[in-house]
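Standup, Tuesday
Yesterday: got the pipeline producing structure tokens again.
Today: sanity-check two examples.
Blockers: none.

Example 1:
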Amino acid sequence: MARENAPTEKVEQARKRLSEDDDHILEYSQAIDPDSPRAGPTKSLRTVETYTDNLRRFQDRAGASLEELTTADVLAVFDDMQSELATDSVAQYQSAVKGFYRWFEAGNVDPAEIAVKSDQKTGIDEQSVLTRDEFHELREAAADSRARCIIDLFGYTGQRIRVIQTLRVKDVDPSAGATGSYWLNTEAEGLKGAEKAMSKRPLLGA
């Protein structure tokens, strides 16, 4: 499974999901592309992909183009999102929207009014982590091979439920590297910032 050009391909896929009327989102996506010849700050390809998708989704939630929105409109959408998504997920949208309005100076939105909030905590509560024996007991108690496979995914990747829920067949390559690899589905919402560090992970990485 060839993945060398995966980041570039995913950026192009994100741009193809834009409609013909999303020209400003496309222009911004191209402006922050690290391969862009334009002068100005750029982002990693992974961030370009995430920003492009999140700006499209945010615009759909708002029910109007980003060019037409006011500061009050944007803040109202974020208030609604806070009741549906994890704070870190909303923060990803806030970062994308704030960046867009810093670039799109002709808009009616003051980017300084967009606060990027995060509730991401550092450290691990040792009492919440299964011991090796507890993990194997749980695995042996699985009702069938499907349940055992799901337990293995949690145990050997160390990922949250939402990450495993959103994995697609094409995101997993058991033959990659020494232990196999998987790629987080960055098109999914609710990953709580897990995709910020890197998308590609070892299957036996926990």
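Example 2:
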Amino acid sequence: MNEIITHLDDPEEQIRQKVLSILAQLNPETPGGLTEKLNDLLNDDPSIAVQMQAAIALAKSGGAEKVLAKLIGWFGSQNAETRISALMTVKATAPYLTIPFDLDPLLNALEDSSAPIRRAAVNAIASLKDASVINALIGHMNDPDESVRTATAGALRQRGDESRDLVLQIFDTDNPAVDSALDALASDNLESLAPLRQFAQREISH
């Protein structure tokens, strides 16, 4: 393990990224000094990609508070790629973020003019355990961009029972998000069949 860690000082950005990726996958007990090194990379590495990879490794090592502080700065970046990468980092670190997370930056990203940012925001929000995020996702099932609608439907489908009732309500209204709602329902869930039959009968009778 110590031999791997020494490569965190490699002058090649790709090597540092690879080592951090390995450390994140191994998720070992943090050796002495590693947390400090990860924090240094998070804050001082010249590569934003290395910083974000360090954020994932540090979150898994119990440094969620330090990671959140950095994420807030990335969310405010003027660079779209940085914001997208930050949202992807939220998804990767979500299982290890054990302290309260401010949803406002993610909700703001859902309203961004850039479809890739909105799509990344959907995936980031869906990774959080907070049940309140489901309402935010429901509101974007009729996003003007197909890739965002697809990501939203997939995110809601993964939430299963948490989202099913809200998704089924769409079939009781004149909502253009019906196609996305169908995609958001798990195909093997028997509780969804009766509402869907009623919807189909209404459509046939029109």
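Quick observation on example 2: The mean pLDDT is 80. The CA atoms of residues 91 and 127 lie 5 Å apart.
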